[in-house]
Amino acid sequence: MNKHPQISNLQAGSILVTTLIGIGVLPLPRAAVQAGENAAPLATLIAIAVAALFVTAWSLLGMRFPKQSLVTYGKTIMGKWLSGLFIVVITAYFIVTTSITFREFGEVTNTFVLRRTPLEIIIMMMLLLVAVTARKDIYSFSLIHSFYMPFVIFPVLFIVMLSLGNVEWLNLQPVLRTPDMKFWMGSLGIAALFRNALIYTYIIPRMENPRTAMRIGLISTSISGGLYLLLVIASVGVFGPQEIKLLLWPTLELGRATIIPGEFLERLDATFLIVWVISVFNSLLSGYYFIVLTLKEQLGLKDHRMIATLLLPFLFLLSMLPQNLLQLYRISSVMVPGGLLLLMGYPCILLVVAYIRKKGGGRVETESV
């Protein structure tokens, strides 16, 4: 560990914040409305609480095994074969969901920005950018996220705060509703937007003080979740739940409806799209990097650069499999929430078994990242 630069708390927090604010920003208000109607902010709040529990569980494991990452402490706790089975399923899940995200990025860009550019070219360009960046070491990875964080947080916050002046608060009433299965599944789907937080399991072993992992994780989740909540409140408040259901990407429409006082700049959706591309790059990079590091450790390789390159064509082919955007969202609505249950259940199992077998807490520490 001493051979490599350590990641500061600020850098670790930046990685989580910029990772969690990704492509889900665009359809988020529609997903929240489908789950809770006028109570969309409540559904989002519950999703943030679920995401906080998710981050807490993995942070506890990281604090218990401060020199190990997901793959290595899984082997320590459950053995090579059983933990390997879980890792294979988790990796496969991330490969599919990351390819879905690449496709969604291509669809949005093709619709609003590069209308004459073939979808395949758009996806391939982003894949190339992510794959080349993923060849860097984990410290360079943290510097990239730290650099981009202000360009993600402040412009989005600025647009949201401006749009709050146009909110019709009656659109957000009643605030509460009787939860049903649709409400809970919708909240789980929103919580799945935080799935890339799993990259944190590779950040904790490189932190200057891994014992602060839970605090940093919860603060970062609160920042990202708070921004999501403000976006839902602003979107539903401006358009109303029934209108939101008719919009494919409500957040972009919110940018179009927002005007800076003095009217010297109208239609902030162009500005928002620029910020969105940056945030999507960071989120895709984290998902891609997680797959690369997991495969590297599971296969026992010393370097991850070859995997970062070989993974590119495979993800490209997967991203092109859905016939259209409707089929893409149908696949996503089934896979993403279900996978989150696995990502939450696995660390809980590991924690219980580690406690019973008295593993961790400084007993077994192996450098792995």
TrEMBL record:
The keyword Transmembrane helix applies. Its main location: membrane. The keyword rRNA-binding does not apply. It is found in: Membrane. GO terms for biological process: spore germination. Keywords: Germination, Membrane, Transmembrane, Transmembrane helix, Transport. GO terms for cellular component: membrane. Gene3D superfamilies: Amino acid/polyamine transporter I. It comes from the Bacteria. Coiled coil: none annotated. The chain crosses the membrane at residues 12-33, 39-61, 81-102, 117-134, 146-164, 184-204, 216-239, 273-295, 307-329, 335-356. Belongs to the amino acid-polyamine-organocation (APC) superfamily. Spore germination protein (SGP) (TC 2.A.3.9) family. PANTHER family: SPORE GERMINATION PROTEIN A2. This is GerAB/ArcD/ProY family transporter. It comes from Paenibacillus lutrae. The lineage of its organism: Bacteria, Bacillati, Bacillota, Bacilli, Bacillales.
